[in-house]
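User: I'm putting together notes for a lab meeting next week and I want to include a structural view of one of the chains we've been expressing. I don't have a solved structure, so I'd like a prediction I can at least talk through. The sequence is below, exactly as it appears in our construct file.
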Amino acid sequence: VNPAVTFGALIGGRISVIRAVYYWVAQLLGAIVAALLLRLVTNNMRPAGFHVGVGLGEGHGLLLEIIMTFGLMYTVYATAIDPKRGNIAAIAPLAIGLIVGANILVGGPFDGACMNPALAFGPSLVGWRWHSHWIFWVGPFIGAALASLIYEYVVIPTEPPHAHQPLAAEDY
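Assistant: Thanks for the context. Below is the predicted structure for the 172-residue chain, given as structure tokens.
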């Protein structure tokens, strides 16, 4: 349900472009429907959406979104995507929920701790409020891409094509 996490999985080569596009369409449509339902149950109030807090520049909000989404995507990789994770997959929902909660506690007062472009898009579209909206797309996509690349190429690197392989026992 997060276009940034979908982008991270795409950058890491874990899903195809076609699948990513399908996910993005579903995620954005879901966010729009949710914002419309929110408007319906709140007596037609316009959703406020996400915004950078007073006294915080757009650059700081962008950096905050990059860092928080990096932590989220890294946690997703470590607990749900990494093929060498072992039995840790059972705690993936808990670990992901804890990082989201921690990010909300830290970043919430400053920019709402979005970490999810769909979460920003639905209320912005329905409430037609676009101020600093780009931060909640660019930041999460950069953070997710960085976490994916670091995890794929540093934490679980693939073997180089000319790596020395240990000899099998029957070869000596």
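A couple of points you could mention at the meeting. Residues 12 and 152 are 6 Å apart (CA to CA). The radius of gyration is 19 Å.

User: Perfect, that's what I needed.
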